[in-house]
Amino acid sequence: MTHTTPPLRTVLTLVAATCLAACNDSPPSNPGQKFVAGISAVAEKARPLAAGAVGTAATTRAITNDQVFAWAQLTYPDLFPGTPFTFSGVAYQGKTFAGQGFANGNYLAVANGEAWGLGPFTGQVLQNFGAVQGYADLVCAQVDCGRSGPTSTCTQPQGEALLAGNRLVATYVRTTSGPVVSTNEYTTTSVVEGPTTFNGQAAVLITRTTDPGAGAAPTQMLIYVQAGDGGLVRTLGTDTSVPGSGPTTRVVYDPPLNNSEFTLQAGQRLTKTASMSTSQLNPTLPATASTRSTTYTFETRETLSVQGRSYDTCRYREAAVGGGSSGTTWTTRSCRPSVCTKWACASRCAVGQSALAGRSDRYASSSGTSRRA
Known about the structure:
373 residues, 2 domains, twelve-stranded antiparallel β-barrel, six-stranded mixed β-sheet, 5 helices, 19 strands, disordered C terminus
């Protein structure tokens, strides 16, 4: 089905619902206060744009505020450029606004399920652009709103990825470009530990230990995942620490983050929005909310050679919405057992290599599953 971008006035109906902060030439240090000041200055001119409002969307999919924000940036990058700053809990005239502000003075916000806009793109007039859910079809045409399988052959099947006892060891050689070229090697070891709970939900625990080498202390990340729909794996959150020292940083994804990029066929793309809260557990510090939107493009399948062996891989391009980091990753399907006995199976595979701005990693991995018959 062909998707046609709607007129700017209609699109901004949703965008404005997400827009609620003060407008100035640079992001304010206190966006909540600046937003209230901006509203007060134009309150007498504020008026709902009934003519531009849209009705309830035909889709049954519910969309989040963060998905709306990501869609607005994708559709109108000139209006909403770069990495936004966020604000929430801004009370004004019986409404509580949460949204994003941009360096050009434009703001997107949502209050009581409706979208609002303020800034140069609205003529400095606070505008109501209707119900957020009325934009569900437009948003979900570009942003992942809960995509499910079937998964492609570019990742492990769910049953293998969550199998207790599964162990993956990857050795990376990282080369950093620039005035001085440097190379270092590090190793990650991931083990599927088995059932656990996280944030009140049943989960499967994966422990990932990274040894940076050169005598530096290793870090440990506890990854909490679940079996998702259609063969996907969803991540509930993570706990990251340096074993034996320092605090633990907890990240909670709400909603959980699906690996939906592996439902794509070659040539397709989707944008995923991760909404998360980050807190410190020991000592306990208040959580901070943030979002990250990334566009994944399944570019092609190609053969990649790692450590003298060739592998059929899937090449993905990842780019942060609004600019910033980008990179390319090659992945391959799960390692198939090559040596089996009555007590265990072992296998080897290559995951691929990745290239990011100013850095390239090349790595190989081995995995094995041990279990009694």
